[in-house]
Amino acid sequence: MSNHLSRRDFIYQSAAPFAATALSSSLFASPIVAPLSKMGIASTSFMGAQIPGSPARPGAGAAPAANAPRPQGRDAFEFLEKCHALGAGGVQTGLNGDLKKLRARADELGMYLEGMVSIPRNGDMSALEKGLSDCQAAGVTIARAAMLGGRRYETFKTLKEWKDWVDQSHNALRLAMPIIEKYKVTVALENHKDWTLEDFLRLLRTYQSQYLQVCLDFGNNISLLDDPYELVEGLAPYAKSTHIKDMGLQPYEDGFLLSEVALGEGMLDLPRIVATIQKANPNTKFSLEMITRDPLKVPCLTKQYWEVFPDRNGKYLAQIFKLVQQKSSRKPLPTVDQLSREERAKVEEDNVKACFRYFNEKIVVA
């Protein structure tokens, strides 16, 4: 590949070989691409179709149990190389392997590194301590975490179950905070279809720590009936990390369908969201989370859904359905569960590339 090619030319010309070798580790030997994007990639953009050593891609339907173990991570060094080949400016991933080598390579490539850690709920904080120690060893100052592995409205069937989980979460955080502050790594909690905006703000104000902040996911809280722009305004002051994504919406008989789609193809005003976050936190990185999967069902017209939302009312339902009515996708939302692993790998890669084309052309990041 000659160095005079523009980045866009490289992306288009490399699409065919990427598709043909989607499951091959030869992807990681791709030549250096420059200049890099201001957007990085979260490892959750690749849910198992392509990354060596990664877990099998979960189905789009059932959510994991509240205390389900997290899957083992993929090779961080290989993931860094792959993302660099795609033109990414950084990565958000679990850390493993030779951490000094990983840090040196990221610096050599001019890429940022963010980690991923878990906050244990069994009282044993050794895994968190190991994760934060690894972050420190790799010179990583921000690590994404999530309290719930699934979706609030699927994981919990009663209000008591939800309240018990909230109590357990606070117990876990109380044990975790001294360790987090010991290592001085900012743990950025993701709004992961668990806490509403009001819930999350109460949590942050409870702990009031510079080391407990937010990984702001652009689309997740639509499933909890939060207005996406009110959510961003509320959490932007705490947003030390992000999952940039676009969302497609369509009604269905029990509520609405919610789907990650390529940037620029959905209903979110991405320049507005990015500008809001940059104004509040100019140094925050934007990590793409383009999850290629079937649309998620948000059954907000069922009685069961409302069992775990005691503070929500008709106002929230009305505002979300106004959004669905005004911004509903004009074409069917994409599905991939019918595809083979190889076919999903190609679609996954194509979606990520499409997101970079949009971001690099349309989004201004200082």
Report on this structure.
The chain has 366 residues and is an alpha/beta fold. It has a single domain (7-360), classed as Divalent-metal-dependent TIM barrel enzymes (TIM Barrel), CATH 3.20.20.150. The chain is built from 12 helices and 11 strands. The chain has an 8-stranded parallel β-barrel with strand order 1-2-3-4-5-6-7-10, surrounded by 6 helices. Helix 4 packs across helix 6 (159-183). The longest helix has 25 residues, at 159-183. The relative contact order is 0.14.
SSE ordering: HEHEHEHEHHEHEHEEEHEEHHH
CATH class call: Alpha Beta
Low-confidence stretches: 1-30, 50-72
Which CATH-level-2 architecture? Alpha-Beta Barrel
Rg calculated over all Cα atoms: 20 Å
Strand pairing plus helix content: what structural class? alpha/beta
What is the CATH H-level superfamily?
Answer: Divalent-metal-dependent TIM barrel enzymes
How many helical stretches?
A: 12
